[in-house]
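User: Could you check the structure of this?
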Amino acid sequence: MITLAVVSDMMKYSFLILALSFLCCSPAFAQAKYEREFRIRKSQFPQNALEQIEDQIKDARRLRFYKEIDSATISFEVKFKKDRLHYSVEFNSEGELEDIEVLIKEVDIPTDVFSSVSDYLEGNCTNFKIRRLQQQYPVTEKQHMEKVIKDAFQNLILPYINYEMVVFCKTDAGREEYEYLFNSDGVFISRRKSLPPNYDHILY
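Assistant: Sure, the predicted C-alpha cells are below.
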C-alpha cells in the first residue's frame, strides 16, 4: 500500500531530478566557465607533455606549471616567457598538446580582422573593453603537433589560428565578463561567461 508519505517523497525526488536536469542543460549554465587552476611542481607535470616542448623551454624564463580542473575535464598548462613573448601551452589529461597561446596586443592583429571583431562586439555590447588578448594555435586533424609548435614559436599569422579574448561587455542587463573566440578573419566562433579564475598557486 502506497501511503501519502511515500507519494510525497516520490514527488520530492522527481522534482529534484527535474531541477538538476534543467540546470545541467540550461544554455546559461553551459556557457559559464567554472575552473580551478593550481600551480604544481615540474615533477607533477606529465612527462610526455614536457618531451613535446623540451626544446622550447630550455632557455625560457618565468617557467610555471599548472593543473586545471573544471566540471568536465582535467588539463595541464605550462606558462613562460621567451623571446619577449608570453606563452601558454595547454595539454589534456593524457599529456597530448591541445593548443599554444601567445599574449598579444590589439596592434598585433591585422587591421581588417580587428575591425571585424570590433564590429561584432559593438553589435552585442553597448560598451566593451578587451582585458586580455591571445593568439591561439590549436591542434586539429589538419594541423598536427609538430607544425603547431613550429608556427607558434615563430609567431606566424596563419589561416588556422584563432583569437581568444577576455572582454568586459556592458549591456542593458548589466556588465559581464566573457571569453570570446574568433577565427583568423575575425569571424565569431563562440562566447562563454567567464568567472574570475581561482589561482591558488599551491605547490602540493
